[in-house]
Design brief:
Distance between the termini of chain B: 58 Å
Number of helices of chain A: 11
Number of helices of chain B: 10
Oligomer: heterodimer
Structural class of chain A: mainly alpha
Strand content of chain B: under 5%
Number of strands of chain A: 0
Largest sheet of chain B: none
Order of helices and strands of chain A: HHHHHHHHHHH
Number of strands of chain B: 0
Radius of gyration of chain A: 28 Å
Structural class of chain B: mainly alpha
């Protein structure tokens, strides 16, 4: 039966192919339509050097923008982590209204806005700097394409390293903050001691103990790995750089799946009952220290890192292809 | 140096008919296939400067046809989801510009007409599988060539071919099960 169907499919496809080849229009007709549809401006090919310099300038500005956005996010993340340790010893019961807007969502919105603003500003400055360098190169009699290519290479590692470190660290920090604070609680929830949450908190072991340990353990390798990836990208001919270029799209897809599955597990099986502090006025919801929390963070951190790395490296590959085509 | 139009014509001429037939096979109606090929030819002409190896023109042109075909499929999906303007009524009615049924309609083709049957069966396939099947079964390309054209691995092409073939088989089995049993060429006489 299967053989009969297979033969039938093959025969039908052959008949279809013969039918589709019937009454084809000629190449003359295709050429007429192609030439007629082409705008007059396109008929003059642009100068290859101009195209190359244009592509180099755009890529340079984009990379500087990404590096600046990453740097802002990295600094913001480090500031948030330092703030969580309450370096100035502020009493959290002093005035809670001061800390409105310090919840993870507000911090995320603020971080994204600042990163975008830094990116736009840096791109504008980079375009100006690129033009300035090219003018100087032309005045010296240097080849502008070589100068442009050198400028692009000089920011390649920074764009990947800072971009990766900033975005991954920011996402991991906010994720951890949202999981520990249950979303709407401010950053000052980290400043409280177990005694301030009443007897329930004292009964649960290590509810707030080591609350920053997991986050710091996750962030340090992420930043270190980002620096390593950035360094590898800066040296184009190195073996790690070539390996990174083979970084598959599947790794990014797998990272998305792992991150989503881990978050699902975290929200589904988090020991919320232990974390609820029902002692007025501290009726806050927190996720207690448990084996699950570091486990979630340990899986989420590499997943986010892989995801961001995949996106940034894909962007870099597309830019490199564009530069090659323009050259 | 040859003017671009002359160069393009010189390169296009030997592959024109097969490429046009390929574009027609990807679409249900011949007019849609011609439009697809025309758009691909226009795009190829505009990007002719980027073609380094003239010997690879055929593969390059087919890549562009495949790319344009994917854009058309995406556009068709959006058009069906959010119908606008002139195409809206036809899309809602499930017809293309020639009045043929669009892909994925439930109407069964006439079992006696091999061409309509194969056309409808191909229309049931996702775009990537349809491209792979047409290139392999009709155009006679090797798996490695298809992989280069679709920019995927050889194993991915093999998987697409196997899945596409299985879908075609299922579609034909449905036809046979519906009592419209088609016959083989050998059995027709």
């Amino acid at each position: 039966m299967t053989d009969t169907i297979d033969r039938l499919v093959t025969e039908d496809l052959a008949e279809l192919a013969a039918a589709k080849r019937h009454a084809l229009r000629g190449v003359e007709q295709t050429m007429q339509a192609v030439v007629a549809a082409r705008p007059a401006a396109e008929s003059t090919p642009p100068h290859p050097a101009a195209l190359a310099v244009l592509a180099l300038g755009t890529v340079f500005a984009r990379r500087v923008g990404r590096a600046a956005s990453g740097a802002v996010l990295l600094v913001g993340t480090l500031t948030a982590v330092v703030t969580m340790t309450n370096p100035f010893g502020i009493d959290p019961d002093l005035d809670r209204s001061v800390w409105i807007g310090w919840d993870p969502y507000a911090l995320a919105a603020r971080g994204i806005f600042l990163a975008m603003a830094a990116g736009v500003l840096a791109r504008w400055l980079a375009e100006t700097a690129f033009e300035h360098h090219l003018r100087a190169a032309c005045a010296r009699g240097d080849e502008p394409r070589a100068t442009g290519a050198r400028l692009v290479r000089s920011v390649d590692g920074l764009a990947i390293g800072l971009g990766l470190a900033g975005v991954a660290a920011f996402a991991i920090c906010l994720g951890a903050l949202a999981l520990v604070c249950e979303g709407w609680e401010g950053i000052d929830v980290f400043w409280r001691t177990p005694d301030q949450f009443g007897p329930v908190a004292r009964d649960t072991t290590a509810m707030y103990a080591d609350r920053l340990r997991d986050l710091v353990i996750a962030l340090v390798p992420v930043v270190a790995m980002a620096a390593a990836v950035g360094r590898a990208c800066a040296r184009e001919t190195s073996r790690p750089s070539r390996l990174l270029m083979m970084f598959s799209r599947r790794a990014t897809s797998a990272a998305i799946l792992i991150a989503a599955a881990t978050l699902f597990v975290a929200f589904r099986w988090a020991p919320r009952g232990v974390g609820v502090i029902g002692q007025p006025p501290h009726d806050v919801l927190v996720w207690a220290s448990s084996a699950l929390r570091p486990a979630v963070l340990a899986i989420e951190a590499p997943a986010w890192f892989t995801l961001v790395a995949g996106l940034l490296l894909a962007r870099r590959r597309a830019e490199n292809e564009r530069l090659t085509a323009a050259r | 140096v040859q003017p671009p139009a002359v160069r393009f014509r010189r390169l296009l001429e030997p592959v024109h008919d097969r490429a046009l037939a390929f574009a027609r096979c990807l679409c249900r109606g011949s007019a849609d296939g011609d439009d697809l090929f025309q758009e691909a030819a226009l795009r190829a002409f505009a990007r002719l400067d980027t073609l380094r190896d003239e010997a690879a023109f055929r593969a390059w042109l087919y890549q562009i046809i495949v790319s344009v075909h994917r854009s058309h499929c995406r556009r068709a999906l959006w058009r069906r989801l959010i119908p606008f303007g002139a195409a809206a009524e036809a899309a809602v009615a499930g017809l293309d510009r020639d009045g043929h049924a669009l892909y994925r309609t439930s109407a069964a083709p006439d079992a006696g007409d091999a061409i309509a049957r194969a056309d409808a069966a191909l229309g049931k396939l996702p775009a990537v599988q349809r491209e792979a099947i047409v290139l392999f079964e009709i155009e006679g390309w090797r798996v490695e060539e298809i992989a280069a054209c679709q920019r995927v691995s050889v194993s991915a092409v093999k998987s697409r071919l196997a899945r596409g073939r299985a879908r075609l088989r299922r579609h034909y089995q449905k036809l046979l099960g519906a009592g419209n049993a088609p016959t083989l060429a050998g059995e027709r006489s």
